[in-house]
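Re: your question about Riboflavin synthase

S., sorry for the slow reply, the queue was backed up all week. Below is exactly what I fed in.
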Amino acid sequence: MFTGIVQGIATIENVTEAPGLSTYAIRLPEDKVDGVSIGASVAINGTCLTVTRQEGSTLFFDAMQETLRLTTLGDLHTGAPVNFERAARIGDEIGGHLLSGHVHTTARIVEILRPENNVTIWFEVPEAWTRYIFPKGYIAINGASLTIGEVRDNRFNVHLIPETLRATTFGDVSEGDRVNIEIDSQTQTIVDTLARLGYDRPAPTL
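Result:
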């Protein structure tokens, strides 16, 4: 499990592609790899990956074809920055909301507004997933726990303060970029339960 509080920005050092599998070498800040072991879980842009090897502060992860299909990991290239969060431990403070690291879908950045001292980003999601997106609700975008602002059809926005822009990759995004989306599990459970009772349309097919 993860908390949605991004612990820093890591860098893609290398991507090795093989049929149905990509291996990522990702360099974390040196002070963030203490106690990492093979088999540990780390969220990379919100996607839960397993450490397969370690060389100093560089961790290696394998991503299978299904992971590449459902996430933006296949878009990553050498030198790209990514958000990371190591798995939460019992007793850790939950500063965001509980996440599984299982990406539901991707969204595209359609507009970036920069009023003084903050940034508003508009995202567009596949129509079927809007059933889980509500103003003031939780959502995880590239592994960051954020509060939804406005919702218009299949678009929604989030408002980012300077600290979020500093601590994550959101300070360097552009219109047209794709991001990973994990829907809030409690919201999904409530909406799907209502759907089974006949109060909503069926859940999306993955």
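The chain has two domains: 8-86, 105-196. The chain has three helices and twelve strands.

Happy to talk it through on Thursday.
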